[in-house]
Amino acid sequence: MNTPEQEKFDIKSLVEETPFESLSAQAFLKKWGEMNDGVKIEFLPRKEWEVQKETGLFQKNKSGKEMLFLPEDLHLWEMVGIMEEVDQKTFSENPEKWLKKKVEMNALGKMFKNAGAYISERLSSVEEGKEIAEAMAEEFSSYGNLLVKEVPGSTELTPEETQTVDEWFLGKNIAVSRMGKVEDPEEKEEARKEAIAQFFRVAEKAFALKKRELPSSEEGIELWKKTTPIHSSFLQKVERSIEREVEKPKWEMSGAIFRSGIENILKNLERPDGKKAVSFAAASFEKMFGKKAVASFFGEKEKLVESLHLSDLKNELEETRRSGNADAISLKESQIAFKIQRAVSSFPYRSNSNNPAEIVAEKYINCVGASTIGGALLSEVGIKYLVGAVPEHSVTLLVTSDGKVIWQDMLNPHINEELTDALLEGKNWQGKPLSVADIAEFSKNPSSEGLMFDIKGEMYRKKVPSIDEGSRQYITVFPPETGQQIQILSNTASTLSKLGNYEEAIEACRQVISLSPKYLPVYNNLGYSLAHLGREEEALAVYKKALDMNSEYSLAYDGIGQIYFQQGRFKESKEVFEKAVSVHSKDPHAHFGLGRTLMKMGNSDEAMREFNETISLNHSLAEPYFYLAELSLASGKKEEAIASYEDFLARADEKTDPKKIMSAKESLQKLKINN
Predict the structure, then answer these.
(1) C-alpha distances in Å from residue 14, one per residue of 120, 136, 148, 238, 248
(2) In the prediction, which pLDDT does 216 show?
(3) Segment 118-131 mean pLDDT
(4) Which of 291, 306, 598, 665 could form a disulfide linkage to 603, CB 3.0–4.6 angstroms apart?
């Protein structure tokens, strides 16, 4: 009798992925290149690319545009070499930056090799789940060898390497709680073996339960209501973690392209001078005679970096740091950061201007663009900061050498504020109340998953006017490069979906998730784009994933409710929107969705109540007035219908359904004639 093969974590198929074979993935990466340094990316069949590689991955086309050639079947491990070439070109005048990123990617390969050795060295302690452990050790080592080539030597790990793998493989909490407080090396090793044995024992049981899973009592219950079994939750968590680490080269390659955009800002962004007439004359002159003639006739425009005397500021800070005086160092950091903030805030605002190439070309910024420019300048000087994502806004948090954390909105230098423990509401990695010291500590080695917490008090709502009253006053802080990419990618995904380019929007969302899988807003955008492509089951699964991470994320309920509404499943839609309202009673969109559903079900009075509640929460929304008018008209209340139609038309904009606008105008005209 054949023993069934033990199910294992599927690492090999992840490693063999070719992420850019789909046209939508290629289209998005091309767009990403243009958005950053204006580089044009061209995908070639493998054989053509091998020939092209001999003459160089970079080449200028006839119009002088820089081109980067990539194979259509680009593998994850190949991306490391391409990332190195992109970084080497970007930092040709600053090789230290290129070498730093090269060391980081080598460290990823080394980590996989070390993790393989780490498990192999302790296989004798694994009794249950040994096949799973052996397969994982082998596949980790193989992938590490693909990522980094090293001269063969000892595979035995040093104590420092072992400790690093402890946190990477077992997780920081387990590593600290099991081994952190143990001083004796032998006792520490026994604790390590016990933790590893437990991991694979649980994995084997989870796979066994998954295989013989019977239909549960939840069969027939809507997806959003179902609870994920503990064993499935464990497997999903491990699989997501492995997937994230294996696919790191993909988002690191995107990061290399983004770094070229940041360098483009530092080298080429001119300060805003406000001389419209001269600028127009210079632009006309350039069309006729070229850039060199403009430079000799009008003079070179001053670069932002030059106008700030950034190298002098950097020298001043380094000199102050040599003094060792913490108060003086922090004061100097704050002064330089404020000077940078004032310079950035002088750029004119435009809502969609956050792409590095566009910022350099047109010198307009939005909040994300402001954080990107300001952050690039802070990094160049050597000042520590975090990127903060708040609802519909972006800020930076300055972290000074003495541990202060200062809210710094690069668009507005007048609302800076030092955070205090009393303003914070959240938990640190140990589950204890979050403090300013925890944020400062996070900034030393920030995770790309970010740190989310709430800010209490009126201060937040004054600084973030987009937040609805009663909504969570949260902020998620990220390491600089990761946070900037997340925000630009999120804005790009929103723009693409509004334009109907849903496939590219989906790819942008997936890029965000690969960077930070716990960043909830992106799941709403991803679900929206999938639903508009008719991929409703996928969209529902995306919203469910968001709810698994946060059962009070009302936008996920809104998304599910919308899908059920479109499918004509009004009973289920009503139930979901009621759940959304119970989770967040101040969410106007939840009340609006519930109102539409009730209206479809013939519950006019209840629907009218929900539309009125929507308006009380956000009176600028147009559509609730349209439905109020329709309900009033149906019940013979002509005066109320006229008033609601007029309110609707007064608030309608380019986003409003043109059919509703036309219908409202026609109904209004008839009502006024007959009134």
Answers:
(1) 21, 13, 17, 14, 11
(2) 47
(3) 93
(4) 598
Residues 6+ apart with CB under 8 A from 71: 43, 44, 45, 46, 49, 50, 78
State pLDDT tens for residues 294-353.
444 445 578 999 999 999 999 999 999 999 999 999 999 999 999 999 999 999 999 889
Task: Please report how many Cα atoms fall inside a 13 Å half-sphere around the Cα of residue 116, on the Cβ side.
Answer: 17
421's tokens: 């423990």
CA dist 509 and 497 (Å) reads 10
355-369 pLDDT, tens digit per residue, is 999 999 999 999 999
Nearest to 89 by CA among 37, 44, 150, 166: 37
Classified as helix, coil or strand, 506 is: helix
Q: Is 41 helix (H, G, I), strand (E, B) or coil?
A: strand
Q: Mean pLDDT score of the chain, rounded to an integer?
A: 87
DSSP annotation string for 53-120: HHH-SEEE-TTS-EEEEEETT--HHHHHHHHHHHHHHHTTT-HHHHHHHHHHHHHHHHHHHHHHHHHH
308: closest CA among 372, 252, 376?
A: 376
In this prediction, residues 452-457 reach a mean pLDDT of 86
Cα dihedral: 327, 329, 335, 337 (round 10): -120
Give CA–CA dist 454/552, Å, rounded: 14
- Where are the domains positioned within the chain? 18-74, 76-212+223-258, 303-478, 514-523+530-674
Query: 16-60: per-residue pLDDT in tens?
Result: 999 999 998 999 999 999 999 878 999 999 999 999 999 889 988
> Token match 């690069």: residue?
410
How many whole angstroms separate alpha carbon 339 and alpha carbon 181? 45
The residue with tokens 């520590």 is 384
d(CA 248, CA 17): 12
User: 356 Cβ partners below 8 Å, 6+ apart?
Assistant: 35, 36, 37, 258, 261, 262, 264, 265, 372
d(Cα 396, Cα 406) in Å, to the nearest integer? 8
With 60 as the cut, is the pLDDT of residue 176 above it? Answer: yes
Locate tokens 């900034």: which residue? 443
Residue 295 CA: distances (Å) to CA of 290, 490, 572: 9, 37, 66
Looking at residue 601, what DSSP letter applies? T
Instruction: Give the C-alpha separation, 334 to 100, whole Å.
Output: 27
- Do 272 and 362 touch, CB atoms closer than 8 A? no
Separation CA 41–CA 70 (nearest Å): 7
Over residues 106-124, mean pLDDT: 93
Q: 341-345: long-range contacts at Cβ-Cβ below 8 A with a sequence spacing of 24 or more?
A: 341/374, 341/408, 341/410, 341/413, 341/416, 342/413, 343/271, 343/304, 343/307, 343/308, 343/377, 344/370, 344/373, 344/374, 344/377, 344/410, 344/411, 345/370, 345/410, 345/411, 345/412, 345/413
What Rg value do the Cα atoms of the chain yield, rounded? 28
Residue ranges of alpha helices (H) inside 166-269 are: 172-175, 185-211, 230-246, 248-268
| Chosen CATH of 514-523+530-674 out of 1.20.1250.20, 3.20.20.30, 1.25.40.10, 1.10.10.10 | 1.25.40.10
Least confident window among 208-222, 456-470, 478-492: 208-222
SS3 label, residue 136: helix
The vertex-258 CA angle with 255 and 261, nearest 5°, equals: 160
